[in-house]
Model the fold of this input.
Amino acid sequence: MLVIAAKSGQLGNRLLLFAHYIAFARENNLWLLNPAFDEYAEFFQATANDLFCAYPPPPIKIKANRWLRIKYYQFNRYLAQSKLFKLIDITREKPFNWSDSKVTEQVKANSITFMQGWLLRDGWFVQDIPNLRKHREAIREYFKPLEKYRQNVDKLISTMRKDADILIGIHIRQGDYQQHQSGRYFYQSEDYVKVMASVKQLFPDKKVRFLICSNAKQDPNLLAEFDYYFGNNQIIEDMYSLAECDYIMGPPSSYTMWGSFYGDKPLYMIRDLNKAPNLNDFVGFDDWKGVFHYREDWSQSYWEWTH
Done:
């Protein structure tokens, strides 16, 4: 049995990490527990009523509130550090992938192994994408949002699709991106408007409608030239609404990467504001590749995406 014993980033990172563990567990017939998913468990069908956030889903589930989930996570953190069980600590000093690691050799079906580390996030998993592809449908089913969120997403998307030929979802991520990697991917709203205008020109004979999801309030006056809707401003509904668009774009972020993976939709990562994007820049999740740039300050290490 594997236990994910530490948290890694926010929602997008947690989903991608959890998904990779699920693929690994399916490949090796292992049982998986993820107490580190506590803040987000309440949003999904498979985990909302399962304290353990287990895969495969257990036949009998223990319902939990937020307090109990926090205590469950803290207890597992204690066990991970107690030296009573095997702990595999995967550092961020170099890219990680299951096939090249010795994790499979260290994990035994009848033992309990705790794992921690920022593995599989922000592109550290590029060599394991085929495994995600193989188990995509099982993963999609596990991370299906609760019915109330799905209904809100369906209502928004069906409204947007009326009289529109192309839906393009854009993630305007500001807020926390002012500090993330020293503001490397923090863009002003005017920058996003320029990218939107450039992308709109790629469909000259189509009626293009944009879905705008953001963690910062946007000025409608800046968007007057576009046919657009704002997202519902709910963390799950925005993510899964982006997944329903025909194309997705935004700065490098696991939030849009999950939308691309879950919805099987092409994604354009905005990395160069001076570049005029073309349709080939919208890449399916399965086709991403990358070059790893190591920095002595591990927090500054990053992937440069290619395709």
